[in-house]
TrEMBL record:
The keyword Repeat does not apply. InterPro entries: HTH_LacI (IPR000843), LacI/GalR-like_sensor (IPR046335), Lambda_DNA-bd_dom_sf (IPR010982), Peripla_BP_I (IPR028082). GO terms for molecular function: DNA-binding transcription factor activity; transcription cis-regulatory region binding. Residues 3-57 form the HTH lacI-type domain. It comes from the Bacteria. Keywords: DNA-binding, Transcription, Transcription regulation. It comes from Parashewanella spongiae. It holds the Pfam family LacI. This is LacI family DNA-binding transcriptional regulator.
Amino acid sequence: MKVTIKDVASYAGVSIKTVSRVTNNEPSVKPSTVDKVNSAITALNYQPNISARNLAASHSFAIGFVYDNPNAYYIIDMQNGILTACNEKNYELIIHPCDSTAEDVSDQIISLIKRSRLAGVVLTPPMSEDPQLLSALDEVNANYVCIIAGNEESEKPKLSVLINDKFGAKQLTQHLINLNHQHIAFLCGDIRHKSSIERLEGYRQALKENNIKLDPDFIISGNYSFESGIAGTEQLVTMRHKPTAIVASNDEMAAGALFAARLAGINIPNELSIVGFENSPFSRQTLPKLTTVDQPLKQIAKVATEMLINNKHLSAQKYRIFTPNVVLRDSSVTLTKK
């Protein structure tokens, strides 16, 4: 027999309205009452009917995740982080992949928000970095949170989670410099993503601060894919003056770089050190395992969703910053000077 809200109210010794206020996360309920109701919900294994709650309430209890990204690991981690926050707050999650280059992408997302009565949407790059899209969402008073590359000084949307990609790439490059590498190449990701620009700038800054001349031929354009890492590395290893280390814009590219180097008969890491970015499963599945920077995507997505849900409170923080940290593994070693 299905447990109802009336059963929960009776078990907790409160009114049905109080149970509704607790499940709707209204801030005016006493903590002791919240604890009683939540204990009853747990004891009875009560599952609120979110669809019915959406129809009855003055606001929605559904969050949308809008994305355009070829990296499956990225999407899964983001989805799991958002879902964790939604489950904790009794919200539904609606997932919507889209083509960020489509002319009507703004209309698509606005239609999704209205059709599904979304309380808000979580936007990831490149949509979260598209000023035209954000302006269109502002015009219809849509609620959204942006996950973007940047730092405290960066220009940012009204509600955002910033990832300091520049610092992460700078630290990675500095790590290679500390290992005596002077000829360091960079595999650049999709230029539509601000993260690509930020990571490239971090690489440039590290070289500059160590008085290492930048070789433009060592910067290879590409996208965030395994195949792009292969193509870029094949180009680098056929140069007359080859790099001794490669900074890849993400782990998938780094795994592709390692694959291409192996095919070329290059020993990793003794002849060529390779580092990635994001600390995705790719970084742990290669041989050797990849040095990278940790980008806690699940936590980032969870925090972004919590900010979106709590944004109705005036005291809610408007932005958060995550700083990636270097994870040392076996794909980078000290260069032996001959």
